[in-house]
Structures are given as C-alpha cells and as structure tokens.
Design brief:
The protein is mainly α. It has 2 domains: 49 residues; 59 residues, no CATH class. It is 62% helix and 8% strand. The protein has a two-stranded antiparallel sheet with strand order 1-2. Helix 1 runs antiparallel to helix 2. The radius of gyration is 22 Å and the shape is elongated. It starts with a helix and ends with a helix. Bound molecules: zinc ion (ZN). The site of zinc ion has 7 residues, from helix 5 and helix 6. Zinc ion binds next to helix 5 and helix 6.
Length: 146
C-alpha cells in the first residue's frame, strides 16, 4: 500500500488514544514529551505525503509521447490528430505520476534542455515507497510479536 495517509491513520489514532489515557490517569505528573515528539513526527511525514501524492497524466492515445493534466484536454488533442480507429476507440489513456517528483523532474530537465518523460516520477515515487516500506515493516513487526 502506498497511501501514506491510510498507513499513518492507525498510528495517529494510537497516539491520540494514548494521550487521552495518560492525561486522564495522571494529569499532573505524566511526561507528554514522547507523545509530543510522536505527534510532530507524524505531522512531518504527513507533510511529505501531502507533497508526494499521485496525479494523473492523460495521453490522447496510448504511446502518444505527450500528456495533458485533464482527460478533456487529451480528448481535444486526439480530435485534432488523424488517429487510427483503434486509438480513437480506446480514447485517452492515463498513468499516474508523483505530483512533487514530476514537478522537480520537469523543472530540472527543461532547464537543461534535455527531453523528459517522467522517468523518475512514476507513481509510487521513491520517497513514497521508502516511507510506505518503513511504515509497513513496522506494522508487520508489531503484529508478529503479539
Ligand atoms: Zn514523489
């Protein structure tokens, strides 16, 4: 699973639950620093997840070599091209890229004049995969020891 928000939700719930339990039990003596640190860590990972999210890129037809942000734009472009019947029947196709990695890749490569095609930005991106793998393995370890 690469949906960071979904992966973080159970951890978020645990932290909130733990905070309520300890505050009710010992409101004046409990040290909330560990929970505060966990809350900040969650916020940091969520901020990364808010940047690295999937976005669709529409091709007028499969293998067109150029894309649009919306299906409507791709449809319009397909209508302006003399396409084979098969391509027209299939209609616009989409694939997913990471919004942030695609932005960075397009900026870097357009500055250098190099041709680009979302080589490093296909969804899920490396950043998202890294977080998801770390979160996933934590969950597996917890389940394995209980
Ligand atoms: Zn990314």
């Amino acid at each position: 699973m690469t949906d960071l928000r979904a992966l973080l939700a159970p951890i978020h719930d645990l932290v909130q639950e733990q905070r309520v339990i300890v505050m009710l039990a010992e409101p004046d003596t409990y040290d909330t620093r560990p929970l505060d640190a966990m809350t900040r860590l969650l916020a940091a990972i969520e901020a990364v997840g808010a940047l690295h999210k999937p976005e669709k890129r529409w091709e007028p037809y499969e293998g067109a070599g150029y894309t649009f942000l919306t299906r409507e734009q791709a449809l319009e472009a397909a209508g302006e091209e003399d396409l084979g019947a098969v391509a027209m029947e299939a209609g616009p196709q989409f694939f997913e890229v990471c919004a942030e990695c695609a932005r960075v890749e397009s900026e870097q490569l357009s500055e250098s004049g190099e041709e680009w095609g979302y080589r490093e930005a296909l969804w899920p991106c490396k950043t998202t995969e890294t977080f998801a793998a770390a979160l996933g393995s934590d969950t597996t370890n917890q389940e394995g020891t209980q």
